[in-house]
Each structure stands twice: as structure tokens, then as C-alpha cells.
Specification:
The chain is mainly beta and about 90 residues long. It has one domain: F0F1 ATP synthase delta/epsilon subunit, N-terminal (ATP Synthase, domain 1). The chain is globular. It starts with a strand and ends in a 6-residue tail after the last strand. It is found in: Cell membrane.
Length: about 90
């Protein structure tokens, strides 16, 4: 099964990087689900939860505003602030 390469970045640091089967996030246009093979896009994120579905289960992080970029099964999420206390080390 194809995987996404995901990079989660806060304004001051790289928060998490790894493989995922799906990413969910809230954009200014509504809830968005990204799976392998998704068409390229750039979306503005609103404050809320980003879900990262990994082999170990669904991880959720709280972010404030930012953006999400998708291209060639690579998802980059950039937010000013990220509460990553629920992510594994």
C-alpha cells in the first residue's frame, strides 16, 4: 500500500516527520482528507486538530493557523504553533 511522507513543522522547529496512510486537517474551505495519490494542492489551515494516521494508529495534534501543501505523496504542514504533546517521541 502506498504511503504519504509527512512533515509537520512549527515556526521554530521540525515537530514530526514520518510515513502515514492518511492526513486530516481543517482548512478555510472545510475538512480535508489526504490519501496517497491526492492531487497537488495548497490550503490555508484554521485552528484545530490535524490527524496523522500511521501504522501505530491515529495521532492528533492541535495547531493554530498555517498551511498545508500536497505534492507527489508528500504532505507538508506548517503552523505557527503546534501542540505535539500527544505525538510519540
Amino acid at each position: 500500500m502506498s504511503q504519504l511522507t509527512v512533515d509537520l513543522v512549527a515556526a521554530d522547529r521540525q515537530v514530526w516527520s514520518g510515513e502515514a496512510s492518511m492526513v486530516t486537517a481543517r482548512t478555510t474551505d472545510g475538512e480535508l482528507g489526504i490519501m496517497p495519490g491526492h492531487t497537488p494542492l495548497l490550503g490555508a489551515l484554521t485552528e484545530g486538530t490535524v490527524g496523522i494516521h500511521t501504522a501505530g494508529g491515529k495521532q492528533e495534534v492541535q495547531i493554530n493557523t498555517g498551511f498545508l501543501s500536497v505534492d507527489s505523496d508528500r504532505v507538508t504542514i506548517v503552523a505557527e504553533q503546534v501542540d505535539a504533546s500527544t505525538l510519540p517521541a
